[in-house]
Every structure is written in C-alpha cells, then in structure tokens.
Amino acid sequence: MAQWRELNQSRDWTAIHLIRNGERVEANARHCPATMALLARLPQPDIPGAGPNAMFSLLAPHTSIPAHVGVNNCRLVCHLPLVVPEGCWFRVGAETRHWQRGQAFLFDDTIEHEAANPSDQLRVVFIFDVWNPALSAAEREAVRQVIATEGGAEGL
To answer: Which of 34, 45, 122, 123 is the most buried (most CB within 10 A)?
Structure first.
C-alpha cells in the first residue's frame, strides 16, 4: 500500500466495486444487471477470497496513479475506458497509450503500469479480471488451491 501512499484513502482515485475478491457487492451490482450478465459469461478467476474482481475505476482530474505491479500472472486485467477526457493515458511496460473510449485491452499486471488524468474532468475505466488463457484447467485449479490456502486476495 505504501506505493500509493498519496492516494490511499483519497477520493482522487477510487472504485465502485461490482465484485470484490470474489464477492458480489450487491449495493452496486444490482444497478448493473447487463454488466453482471456479461461478466458471468467470461472466464473469470473464481478463487474464494481473491477473485474475480470487477470495478469502475474513477480517477480525479490532475491525478496520477504511480507505477506499480501485480503479484502473479495467473490472470489478465481488462481495462474498458468509458469516460476518457482528452490527454488521459496509461502505460504498461514500455508502451504508453492514450485511452480511447470503448476500446478495451488486456494486460498482465505483473508488468509495471501506471495511469494519469491530466484533464479537468473525471476519468472512468471499467476494470475486470479474466483467467490467463495460457493456463489449462488443471493449472487454474492448482492456482485456485494455492491462493485460497495462502489467504485469498493477497495472493492475487
């Protein structure tokens, strides 16, 4: 958490969770039935206490998310830009791109990544997890067991 010290407990970077660590957040999910139905059709990492996760990520104007990395590559993260003011960008590894509304992309979050909203408006991106397609069913089950044994969300 120290890597985001300036943003911890801040309204500058927040999320509206539909699914958090594998648990449906009913207060939010009930307002998004079509989105929840779509998520149900995706190969999400169903790991008790850890996944899947799905949220609307809100980044305030003139705010940056510092470079950071995930903890393992058993899943990929999908970002679907919904509200993207001019100038908002995202970097994964050596590639930086400007957000394009409606153009989703997947990435391995163990690769260093960061984002910025230099605009005067709120930026909203829908973020959700899917299993890494390189994993077989047996490997997914092994990952599921290891992460559940290791304590859930901290392993994913």
So the answer is: 123
pLDDT at 3 over 60: no
In DSSP notation, 89-109 reads EEEETTEEEE--TT--EEE-T
Fold of 2-155: Jelly Rolls (2.60.120)
Which pTM does this prediction carry?
0.89
d(CA 88, CA 120): 10
pLDDT digits (tens, 9 = 90+) for 23-67: 999 999 999 999 999 999 999 999 888 899 999 999 999 999 989
Q: Report the distance separating Cα 111 and Cα 88, nearest Å.
A: 20
Q: Are 18 and 36 in contact (CB under 8 A)?
A: yes
* CA 82/CA 132 separation, integer angstroms: 24
Place of tokens 């999400």: 44
108/92 Cα distance (integer angstroms): 9
Identify the H or E element spanning 36.
Answer: helix 33-40
SS3 85: coil
Q: Is 46:144 a contact under the CB 8 Å cutoff? A: yes
